[in-house]
Amino acid sequence: MYEIIVEPEALQDLIQIHTFITSKDSQTKANQFIRELENAINTLSEMPFRCRESFYAEDEQTRDLIYKGYTIVFHVREVNVHILTVFRQKGFEKH
């Protein structure tokens, strides 16, 4: 199993996503969605290479996990999965 490490930039991304959803909907919905994102991220501990090679890096160790219109970019290094950034894909407006 791989250890998940959320890098500071990705943590900041999650905080911004939470703030955005809270402003558009409610804190309850924001909390629920962040939990869902965290659950999706946690699945990377078992099979991170199931995800596509990243569109954002030319490195087969860097991958993209897509979840409900969000891209989670991560890098696999030895026994760790480093979550680099989380962002909303253009063209998606719903959660």
Folded structure, characterized:
With 95 residues, this protein is an alpha+beta fold. The protein has one domain: YaeB-like fold. The chain is built from two helices and five strands. Helix 1 packs antiparallel against helix 2. It is globular and about 40 Å long. The mean pLDDT is 94.
Q: Report the structural category.
A: alpha+beta
- Biggest sheet overview: 5 strands, mixed
CATH topology, what is it called?
Answer: YaeB-like fold
Kindly report the oligomeric state of this protein: single chain
Mean pLDDT: 94
Care to count the β-strands? Answer: 5
CATH homologous superfamily - what is it? RelE-like
**Alpha carbon gyration radius:** 13 Å
Shape: globular
Number of helices: 2
Percent range of helical residues: 25-40%
Terminus-to-terminus distance: 29 Å
Q: CATH class, anyone?
A: Alpha Beta
In total, the number of domains comes to 1
Order of helices and strands: EHHEEEE
CATH architecture: 2-Layer Sandwich
Stretches with pLDDT under 50, minimum 5 residues: none
Note the main attributes of this structure.
95 residues; 35% helix; YaeB-like fold; 2 helices; alpha+beta; five-stranded mixed sheet; 31% strand
Give the arrangement of secondary structure elements:
Blueprint: E1 3-6, H1 8-24, H2 27-42, E2 52-53, E3 62-67, E4 70-77, E5 80-88
Short structural description:
By secondary structure, the protein is α+β, with helices and mostly antiparallel strands. It has two helices and five strands.
